[in-house]
Design goal:
Elements lengths: L4 E4 L10 H9 L2 E4 L3 E5 L2 H6 L9 E4 L2 H13 L9 E4 L2 H6 L10 E4 L8 H6 L4 E7 L5 H9 L2 E12 L12 E4 L2 H10 L9 E5 L1 H9 L4 E5 L7 H13 L2
Parallel strand pairs: 1-2, 1-9, 4-5, 4-7, 5-6, 7-8, 9-10, 10-11
Antiparallel strand pairs: 3-8
Helix pairs in contact: 1-9, 7-8
Length: 248
């Protein structure tokens, strides 16, 4: 069956010429965006119950823009004035750039990884004497605590926000040729919202090994997978699949 409609389980990209726009124009397909999960911040009381005192830390580890937003939200709720000397260890340039929403970039001590969390390892080793706080969601990749523990750094995890399954009941009678997932939480949301979901002719596209495992464990048939050496992005994987299927 040809591909005409795609549902991406993420917010719509804000950039004008996103890869999805190019996919839509080239393949003449309809692409909708709908977050299957969203984050909700916990309150300052919950953070205090985790025995976290922001005065105790000299460095903040930020692995997402959500972490940035919720760290500064909690700091404001706690009436904690973030000192100018605070160090920020950002997983990627995108996170570091987003930090400018809250601090004057050139006046702060900001250390940036390339993309993956492991890119920060040399920096953690160099600044091992710091006391690190990791503001995170209730869902955290095992790689993060394992890496920090293996390095022997002084660090504390604080759950500042939670991943919540979105209500998708309005999609019950809506059919898409392809459903696109980027996390195990997205797969969980599908099954929680539609416990009687039957895949039939719906194609499932997944990004990343953990999402592959979640889809497989759920008994779903995976038709499109990324990243691969040939298709490092999801839009490239979709493009390749659509080109092949729609020509038949």
């Amino acid at each position: 069956m040809k591909i005409k409609t795609i549902l991406v389980s993420q917010p719509e990209p804000k950039m004008e010429n996103s890869p999805y726009s190019k996919l839509i124009n080239k393949e003449k397909v309809k692409v909708d965006f709908r977050p299957f999960i969203h984050v909700e911040g916990v309150d300052a009381k919950s953070v205090r119950q985790q025995k976290i005192d922001l005065n105790n830390y000299t460095a903040i580890i930020l692995n997402s823009r959500n972490a940035v937003d919720h760290f500064f939200r909690i700091a404001e709720e706690m009436r904690f004035k973030v000192p100018d000397a605070m160090k920020y260890f950002c997983q990627s340039e995108a996170v570091a750039y987003y930090l400018q929403k809250y601090v004057v970039y050139r006046k702060r001590k900001i250390y940036v990884g390339k993309m993956n969390f492991n890119d920060l390892i040399p920096l953690f080793k160099k600044y091992k004497e710091e006391k690190f706080l990791l503001p995170s969601s209730d869902v955290l990749k095992l790689q993060v605590p394992e890496t920090l523990d293996n390095l022997g750094v002084d660090w504390t995890r604080g759950i500042f926000y939670k991943t919540v399954i979105s209500d998708l009941s309005d999609l019950r009678d809506v059919y898409y040729d392809v459903l696109v997932f980027f996390s195990p939480s997205g797969i969980e949301s599908l099954l929680k919202n539609f416990p009687d979901f039957e895949q039939n002719n719906t194609r499932i596209a997944v990004f990343g090994d953990s999402t592959v495992n979640a889809a497989t464990d759920a008994g779903l048939r995976i038709d499109i997978k990324a990243p691969t050496p040939e298709t490092p992005s999801m839009t490239m994987a979709l493009q390749k699949y659509i080109t092949t299927v729609n020509k038949k």
